[in-house]
Amino acid sequence: MSNCSGSELHWLVPSGDFTERVRELQNASGIEGWTLARDLADRRLDFMQTRKLDRTVQMLAERDAPALPRLKLAIIGSSTLDHLAPAIRMAALRRGLFVEIQIGDYGQWRQAILDPISDLYAFAPDAVLLCHEISALISEQPLASTDADVATAIGDAVRDLRALWALVRERANAVVIQQTPWRIDPPLLGHMDRSLPAAPRSIAARLDIELAAAAQADGVLLLDLNAAAAETGTRHIGDIALWHHAKQAISPVAAPWYGDQVGRILAALRGLSRKVLVLDLDNTLWGGVVGDDGLDGIVIGQGSAAGESFAAFQRYVKRLAERGIVLAVSSKNDRAVAELPFREHPDMVLRLEDFAAFEADWNDKPSALVRIAQDLELGLESFVFIDDNPVERALMRQTLPQVAVPELPAAPELYARCIADAGYFEAVAFTAEDTQRNRQYVANRARKSLQTSSTDLESFLRDLEMVLTVAPFRRIDLARITQLINKTNQFNLTTRRYTEAEVEALMNNPDVVTVTGRLVDKFGDNGLTSILIGRPAGENGESAIEIDTWLMSCRVLGRHVEEAVLCALANEARARGAAHLIGRYRPTPKNAMVKQHYRKLGFHPFDTGENDGDDELWRLSLGPQPMQAPAHIQLVLTKEH
Question: 3-state class of 43 per DSSP?
Fold first, then answer.
């Protein structure tokens, strides 16, 4: 069996001076140590290198607590799983997430779920990954079984799994990730396997479909291993000899590939998927150099294999924008020359209006990305940089290590596959609002243009014609609310994370105040821009509402939206008999921008003597009169859930 671990992580840079750098890591500590650990995890490592790095990182974690988001993952299933843990931890680390893993006892997955005091629940996982082979779910069906017999067997298996999913979610309050059952058995009838109801491939295909539908209905995430393996070749992932000797459904040499599949899902759960795709132009979006070859000389569109490949890549990028990825350009070019193909070339798929930021000059590209990040008000950890030039890629990695930079293949027909395989934009939810995100950032460019042309801030805000609709959490918005809670880092006062089940429980709790704010202005719908969760609190016999969670989109900063949202919260708290609002600021490496948030809104600091760590507590007394929203924002209140 061939070793797939190196070639399948093709978007990562080669391991290079791995051994020497691991020795450095063994003696490193603090921020320097964790920076080096992430750099090493972001390389193309084989199984043994992955295990070596994992051991070193675990020792580092014992010396210095990781200054990274954390997640607890329980893995249970019907095969040997221990050898997969290092790869999962390293795949998560390369995405900026520290994962603690518990592996269930071999074959005891059902017992672990059914026993309410099992180690699974004592671990209190944030996510539970269920790994099965088909034989663990469905008994072998006689080849003479009818279609109805097979349908009954599959239906029974899926119903059983759904009941177990429900138990995990109820008892652990954790996200459930179901691996699509791995196929071990070879085909019996060759290509006819898919035609005979009881043949292995036929059962596997039908089970995948039924499981996908059940997972969607139950809010369970799929680790679609069969689909991912189809891109790689299943013989490179599983080794039948290892299955019989060690019950390892996934071969050790494929562990880095498997770990990456799991790691990208875990990172997405913590809001660590990338949000912005920054593209070079010459020989990236088209063939040739537009400044030298002219508009007619660049290669794009029908007529050649290269031209069709570049057009296909542009179509892929446009589809990414449609699903919510923000697009930007960084090109070493005169701006007018760089814009020309988008304006005038008939075969261009992408147009200027598809980009939320467009940097074209002769300065270095890292500086351009910093300007784009400032313009979009997004952290550099949100960015993926695509450039055909290896020198530019190396400079970006060296200068801005927060930016993801895949090793782009030489052939343009492989560009899209490289980005897809890297999993930078992994999603755990998809909402209608996601489809508008790139458009919202593009519209923000028009708002900034208006601000530049306005004579003063007051007239700019008035001319925006803002309408803020405030409502409690609604079931239709659950996925989007959960998504924002788990990925918003900068304007987030406490950065508490909640699963969708937890958000739903808060929504249904009559004692909890939930607030969403949707902002619309003359340039379009900004979507859900504000989320607050308030819990009952009391001090000195007076009722209060403590703000458990307050997050906002950075796109609406500077428009006094926070005052309007506070107005809605304060008036709701007053209606419930509260005398005060209590705000909590929990500092993190990324939310320093809101350190003075409560002070600016008129809150006063206070100390109960029970403050948690570095938490700061702030209090606002609610006067006898309702609070008024800023005059330039029309506030619309609705009670509809």
Answer: strand
